[in-house]
Amino acid sequence: MAAATLALKCASVASPHEPTRTGRVNTLPAMNSTPHTAAEPQTLSTGPAWNWRNRFLALGTEHHTELAPQPVPAPHWVARSESCAELLGLPADWADRSDWNALEVLSGNALWPGMRPLASVYSGHQFGVWAGQLGDGRALWLGEIDTPSGVQELQLKGAGQTPYSRTGDGRAVLRSSIREFLCSEAMHGLGIATTRALCVTGSPLPVLREQLETAAVVTRVAPSFIRFGHFEHFAQADGPEALRRLVDFVIDHHYPECRVAPVPAVALLKVVAMRTAEVMAQWQAVGFCHGVMNTDNMSILGLTIDYGPFGFLDAYDPGHICNHTDRQGRYAFSRQPSVALWNLHALAQSLMPLIVNANDALDAIEIYKPIYADEMRRRLRAKCGLATTQPGDAGLIDWLLKQMAYERTDHTILFRRLAGFNSAEGADNSSVMGLFKDRKFSELWAKAYGERLRAEDSVDAERCVAMKLTNPAVVLRNHLAEAAIRKAQAGDFSEVNRLLGVLQDPFNDAHDGTADADFPPDWAQHIEVSCSS
Ligand code: AMP
Ligand code: MG
Questions:
Q1: What is the pTM of this model?
Q2: Residues 372 and 391 in one domain
Q3: Are residues 302 and 324 in the same domain?
Q4: Are residues 445 and 370 in the same domain?
Q5: Residue 476 CB: number of other CB atoms within 10 A?
Q6: Which atom of ligand 1 is closest in space to residue 33's alpha carbon?
Q7: Nearest ligand, CA of residue 131?
């Protein structure tokens, strides 16, 4: 039976690169970068006492290719997240145990017993255009393990070529690996749904990007790395059975409540739309810009995934484009919520072989709009310390945001300082209102905000505590990451590790007044972040 087609408001654009739909690629493409000659990794006799589940293997050979990581020479530690290690139930000495040799294993040079490494295949829309088959081009699933926090998948990113590497070298450079590692843990610290990162290891292996850099491997952790693109792939290749198996797998392991719905695939769409709406509100409230919201970078669990040319807003600019490669601004900050909906349409389209009635699919993702709007309103109210809902609140907040956009006020600093607002009539609030050049605005808005706070008998000290738990002192601004990367490239990892500690605890008062919480330096304006990683 032919799948019904959704009338996409944001229909995919015919691609000049429309792929031939032949399903899996079984041969490696030509390499365009440093070949390596190291031997196959050996399986060690012991490792952490995890129960390896390797559930993804059961999906079928259309879904993946089993292959070993490709070793790197002379690996060394760059940084480790002990918070992520705790999530996995690892003991405190996990990295130091000579019998486990975690450094070699998490660099792709050895395996722990129970690991069954594989690369999965997916497709996707990149910058709105159908890109055909992609897949784990440089990520390897090591398997899934039982942990105190449920089943978690472990992945190495940068562990060498796979059948899905296309023209890529399968490697990741130290620069981008530190960015992914720090941002994963920073997002978790901010309370934003994200994949986690256990560690980064480095190697002197040369990797060619715009210039010669060195290789690194990030160990990523998540309950699932399945992306919208996995579904898009099987809507095009291998027939509806492979798609159905993938949907059943995701429902059984991650959304079991969908199993009893009249059409499980519709229920799945709805819950994914809800999760996606929540994570979008989390991003927008904190000023996070992903940079490459292609459908292959959209998690089926609503996690932030694939940290590349991301950025946190310095100045509040709704049109901010963090990815230098995104010349059209498709993924500009203020467009992220509507792009997420576009991506949900692409997911819905891919599930049509299992749904039949297009309206059911469209209705399911419709929930995205009210959930996103409600979540965003709730978060903005919390950012402003408003405990009750009163007429005029939306206008008051909108007025502030418009002025911030007009004056390019620093997003993080403004909301952090707003926590210290004194609501007494005529009080001096220059430490926050002085961030604006427009004196008239400062005076009028402060007056209106003070009145609004008094109208709900807001207690300044209590409100301050609550606002400081929602408005971080520190986010991973580009210049902070850049300073840590420059030192690391010179062999000094102290700044990566120091920054990790700060970012894991971003609401702590101790950061107020430090350089980490300060305005970006002038040189930060010249940092260009692109897809090159
Ligand atoms: P990204 O833009 O990082 O989400 O990557 C898009 C696709 O390209 C994914 O399928 C990646 O696995 C693949 N890819 C990116 N960089 C490389 C690389 N250096 N080697 C192999 N594949 C890559
Ligand atoms: Mg990606």
A1: 0.93
A2: no
A3: yes
A4: no
A5: 26
A6: 19
A7: 1
